[in-house]
Amino acid sequence: MKKFTLLLLALGIAFFSCSDLKDLDNLDTSNLDREFAIPIGKANFSIRDLVETVGDSTLIFIDPDSTIRLNYKGNLTNETANEAIFDAIRLALTALPQFPILDTLTALPFSNAEGIDIDYMDLKTGKLTIVLVNNSSDFFQVDWEFTNVFSPNGENLKGEFLSKANDTHGEIVDIGGYTLRPEDGEVNLRYVATNLTTGQRVTLSGFTMGLSEITFDLAEGYFAQIVYEGTPDTIELDIFENWQRGDILFENPVVKIYSENSFGIPTRALIHYFDVRTKKFGNLALESPSQNIIDFAFPDINEVGQIKYDTFIYNAENSNIEDILFGGPQAIQYDIDAITNPDRDTAIRGFVSCESYYQFIIEADLPLHGRATGFAVTDTLEWNFADYDEVAHAEFKLVTDNELGLEIVAQGYFLDENDVVLDSLFDGSKSIMTAAPTTNGYASGSAETVTYVPFDESRFEKIRPATKLLVAAEFYSPANGDESVCVQVNQGAEIRIGLKFGLD
């Protein structure tokens, strides 16, 4: 006979290993008047074994009172200053055109129509393009200077060139490493042009300047509202993959949205949807007064280089999370966008550095502490008695030692190769395995239950051609499911199984 393996799951608790029995109480392995007693196997399950087999997305925590918490994290939403959301700032600044220099004192705009207004910028790279079209017969000496653009040693950005008669002068000045301090969104140019023939100062025509290829290490000011469209994601709650029916109500489950933000800009999470996919009720929306809009902390203008951490928590007090987790949760599905400067408040002067980043982390934290009412799971077991064609009677014996504070109600179904039910293990009823005694929701000690299941010749003949045994187990908290029970890491159960049968 093949080894008999049983899988049961309570609040996500499973049987995982099975070893041959050396003996079983009240069973004799000798041949007495063509009666045989066979120790079939021993099924052990423990909480620790279970949590070591959950998926890679699950983290396990053991609280000081030995309660297990299952922790699921979603993929990270992570953006840096060099990626799409903040490229818009850089592109807006690099798109500034060549501006005409109409006077010896000229302000060049360093802002754009989208609302970017820079107060301070440390340039990593940048180009200043200077063009003078001289259609006259005179030569000009031109000395130019920006009064609010500074070199690393604090000197103004400045230069000089000679404009020849009937000629076009063009040059590109590398301004990488310089610092810009715009005033009212403008950088100020002052130049002196001297006619070398007359010695007089003149105002030039055909004179333009422009900035391009701007990248920066640090920028301060007002930055326009920019939307980053996140990617929909799903957190699989793999601990419930064997859930069949019944209910579990968790005590104090929470879903958290963590943020890390080193951008000195107001940042808001805009939640398009945040649903729990359940086996019992389909998709249910996580509802909260603050569900759709969540503002996260950000460093202020004097906290460049710092990271601000923030957390928004969905719990029983501010959402319907307990209700929607009641229906056999299988996954959490969400789609979240990020928005900078959501209120377009120009009074908030922020910063962006080349090392700035933000990220959102979605987390579900489920304590194995709750109420179970008919929570059911199944497993398919091997069965091979086709060669035993002379069995006159049989009796299964199950000895259960249960350390859980949950009553186990079990039934088995013998299936043929087409999954047609031939008979049940317990005729017209189910086996009830007593829960361990509990105090204030915590189980202590162990409860032993001994169950005998007789099969006469006709019943055994029905199950002899079966190829599998489908075992269904239901779990109930004390007081008809109204009392919450804590499942602890050191708890488990053992079922020893034997079969006594007689031959014709």
CATH topology label of the largest domain: Jelly Rolls
Q: How would you classify the helix and strand content by structural class?
A: mainly beta
Q: Uncertain spans, ≥5 residues at pLDDT below 50? A: 1-32, 49-64
Q: State the oligomer.
A: single chain
Main sheet specs:
11 strands, antiparallel
User: What is the helix content?
Assistant: under 10%
Average pLDDT level: 76
Radius of gyration: 38 Å
Strand content: over 45%
Helical segment count: 5
DSSP strand tally: 37
Distance between the termini: 19 Å
Count of the separate structural domains: 3
Q: For the record, what CATH class of the largest domain applies?
A: Mainly Beta
Fold topology:
Layout: E1 17-19, E2 35-46, H1 47-51, E3 58-62, E4 68-73, E5 77-80, H2 84-94, E6 99-100, E7 105-109, E8 117-134, E9 140-150, E10 156-163, E11 167-174, E12 179-180, E13 186-195, E14 201-202, E15 207-222, E16 226-228, E17 233-236, E18 243-250, E19 254-261, E20 267-278, E21 282-285, E22 293-296, E23 308-314, H3 321-324, E24 329-340, E25 350-353, E26 357-367, E27 369-382, E28 391-402, E29 407-415, E30 421-424, E31 431-433, E32 438-439, E33 442-443, E34 447-456, H4 457-463, E35 468-476, H5 478-481, E36 485-486, E37 492-503
Antiparallel strand pairs: 1-2, 2-37, 3-4, 4-26, 5-26, 6-15, 7-13, 8-11, 8-12, 8-15, 9-10, 9-12, 9-13, 13-14, 15-25, 16-24, 17-24, 18-27, 19-23, 19-26, 20-21, 20-22, 20-24, 27-35, 27-36, 28-34, 28-37, 29-30, 29-31, 29-35, 32-33
Write a brief caption for the model.
By secondary structure, the chain is mainly β.
